[in-house]
């Protein structure tokens, strides 16, 4: 892409779905700084891939990079759409605007450029009618706080909980060896994945210099995107809750015996 930029075939370069560590990594070797960072942006997912990661907006502004938000009005990839949030509706009624206009104005006041998919002329006119009002600081804080109330992601200590469950299953007297083997195998995979991630962090600078790693990373990312297209997020959550319920059922059964 940088070659296309130097040849004058493209005017700017941009990245999508990048968090602060990934952008920092990119800036460490890129010859052309990205002009935009395009991420999912609404009151629940404010630019980061998870609520506990550093603010992509603050980092981008400090490095003179624009943030472009997508899917700010719909629920993708989760269940609750921002326009259906009760606090958004309350703020919208206060300023006599629609929930969609309120969210677009909220993003605009933060310096975020929002992408909207307009299916009709009415939608386009609605999206443009956000420049005749200003959301006050108190209401902005209310909307910003929704990320702490309605997060669709796992909390940071979720991995630690699974590791504790693995240790518990390892030493608890089991009445079903087959079930123990199955669940231990599932948790062991998660633990190995976490260990691989920690090893990668330790030798990150070494891996980044190798071309084979760069090609492997691109292939892995493309594979992940293909799997993500076929398996929706709600299905993954159902599978997670099912496995977790099996763990507790086996615990109660073992305790009974």
From TrEMBL:
Organism (species) = Reticulomyxa filosa
The beginning of the lineage is: Eukaryota, Sar, Rhizaria, Retaria, Foraminifera
Note the InterPro entries from the entry. AKR, NAD(P)_OxRdtase_dom_sf, NADP_OxRdtase_dom
Listed transmembrane segments: 180-203, 238-256
GO MF terms listed in the record are: oxidoreductase activity, acting on the CH-OH group of donors, NAD or NADP as acceptor
Q: What is this protein called?
A: 2,5-didehydrogluconate reductase
Q: Which domain of life is it from?
A: Eukaryota
Q: Which UniProt keywords apply?
A: Membrane, NADP, Oxidoreductase, Transmembrane, Transmembrane helix
Sequence similarity:
Belongs to the aldo/keto reductase family.
Any idea where the NADP-dependent oxidoreductase domain is? 1-144
